[in-house]
């Protein structure tokens, strides 16, 4: 019974009670329980508030935005239109579109008023040349609309601008020369010529002239000796 008593005694003795061992200060080997009781020492509370939390990792809370996100609001008022930007470069040429439908027939237009002039004149008497140029007068009127051709002066005065077709026909005298000019104002526009022959012939000259208002067309006989002549009979 002596051995167990000795062992129990050895366990209850503090470390410093053993003879031959050095004395050391008492330190805590574990943390006190939390939360400390109402009778706990101030040092225990400070331990939990300071030292313990310094050694633990900090945990930051994470908030899920989707949970806190509200419903979609109504559309706001439309803002003012911004300034027009700079004009860009022209684009590529597009494809040709389809042919459109035929349109409706338009209303009839006004009647076209055509202005024109026409004349046909002749000479019955023969004519011989002189020592100077002379206009060929006419004495027979076949057609002369609005009196455009002056028989006595032998001139057509243009009042309607346009393109005119003119034709001159001459009966030559046998063994005599015929030399005439179709004149536009003071400029020769064409020549009618027939060489002397033992028989008389019909010589013709035709031309088209662009005439303006005020232009004059007439026939001029060339100045020659009496051999230059045109034939005429009633």
From TrEMBL:
Q: Which GO terms describe its cellular component?
A: collagen trimer; extracellular region
Report TM segments. Answer: none
Q: What is its main location?
A: secreted
Which region ranges are annotated with the description Disordered?
74-109
Keyword Ubl conjugation on entry? no
A GO BP annotation: positive regulation of cell motility
Q: Where is the C1q domain?
A: 112-234
Q: Record's Pfam families? A: C1q, Collagen
UniProt cross-references to InterPro entries, sorted A to Z? C1q_dom, Collagen, Collagen/C1q_domain, Tumour_necrosis_fac-like_dom
Question: For this UniProt entry, which residues form the secretion signal?
Answer: 1-17
Alphabetized UniProt keyword annotations: Collagen, Secreted, Signal
Compartments annotated for it: namely: Secreted
Alphabetized PANTHER family for the sequence: C1Q DOMAIN-CONTAINING PROTEIN, EMILIN ELASTIN MICROFIBRIL INTERFACE-LOCATED PROTEIN ELASTIN MICROFIBRIL INTERFACER
Q: What is this protein called?
A: C1q and TNF related 8
**Which organism is the protein's source?**
Pan paniscus (Pygmy chimpanzee)
């Amino acid at each position: 019974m002596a051995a167990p008593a000795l062992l129990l005694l050895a366990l209850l003795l503090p470390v410093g009670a053993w003879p031959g061992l050095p004395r050391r200060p008492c330190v805590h080997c574990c943390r006190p329980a939390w939360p400390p009781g109402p009778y706990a020492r101030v040092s225990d509370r400070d331990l939990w508030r300071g030292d313990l939390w310094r050694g633990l990792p900090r945990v930051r809370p994470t908030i899920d935005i989707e949970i806190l996100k509200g419903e979609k609001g109504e559309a706001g008022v439309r803002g003012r239109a911004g300034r027009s930007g700079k004009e860009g470069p022209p684009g590529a040429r597009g494809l040709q579109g389809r042919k459109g439908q035929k349109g409706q027939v338009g209303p009839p237009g006004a009647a076209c008023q055509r202005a024109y002039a026409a004349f046909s004149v002749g000479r019955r008497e023969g004519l011989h040349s002189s020592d100077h140029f002379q206009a060929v007068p006419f004495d027979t009127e076949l057609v002369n609309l609005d009196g455009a051709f002056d028989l006595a002066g032998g001139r057509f005065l243009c009042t309607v601008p346009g393109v005119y077709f003119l034709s001159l026909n001459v009966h030559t005298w046998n063994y005599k020369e015929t030399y005439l000019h179709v004149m536009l104002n003071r400029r020769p526009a064409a020549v009618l010529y027939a060489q002397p022959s033992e028989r008389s012939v019909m010589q013709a000259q035709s031309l088209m002239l662009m005439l303006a208002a005020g232009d004059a067309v007439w026939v001029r006989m060339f100045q020659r000796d009496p051999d230059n002549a045109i034939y005429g009979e009633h």
